[in-house]
Design goal:
Helix content is 72%, strand content 0%. The protein is mainly α and 160 residues long. The structure holds fe (ii) ion. Pfam families: Hemerythrin (PF01814).
């Protein structure tokens, strides 16, 4: 089965976004399965259309979230989304022209397309939001400024 597995290392720590990434991955896998099983053109085209629709919705929601929290690199991130949307559009066009693209090639494209973006771009949103929360706590006096080299109690507790 040429599926792409969800792993916890893909979680950015923002539930609404992680949930949508899992749904996107499920759609990608549904597509790969349909190709592997040589399902009809109608079936495959419907899945790709759903994948594109869901991608648009997801990018929209993620961008709304970045605006809401005032994520500083949201302009750059939005540009990456535009590139991804264009890439999947071309992918769809190519697929219709050459119907016999090997499933492994499709899998690799979709893996790069989705997984690399999550790991390289979306992960930064989660990290920034957590760092921002720390800064807020320190500013509000809810937390002491960490001394460099000091191991926070909760992290130290998990070690050996
Ligand atoms: Fe993103």
């Amino acid at each position: 089965m040429p599926s792409i597995q969800w792993e916890d290392t893909l979680a950015i720590g923002i539930y609404a976004i992680d949930r949508q990434h899992m749904d996107l991955l499920a759609l990608v896998n549904e597509f790969l399965k349909a190709i592997a099983q040589k399902r009809g053109k109608d079936v495959v085209e419907k899945i790709v259309a759903r994948l594109r629709e869901y991608t648009v919705l997801h990018f929209h929601d993620e961008e709304a979230y970045m605006n809401e929290v005032r994520y500083p690199a949201r302009g750059e991130h939005q540009m990456r989304h535009q590139e991804l949307a264009r890439a999947v559009k071309l992918f769809q066009r190519d697929l219709y022209k050459h119907r016999d693209v090997p499933v492994e090639q499709l899998r690799q494209f979709l893996k790069d397309w989705l997984i690399n973006h999550i790991l390289e771009q979306d992960m930064k949103i989660g990290k920034w939001v957590r760092a921002e929360e720390e800064r807020r706590k320190i500013k509000a006096g809810e937390k002491e400024v960490p001394v460099q080299g000091e191991v926070p109690e909760d992290e130290g507790a998990n070690e050996g």
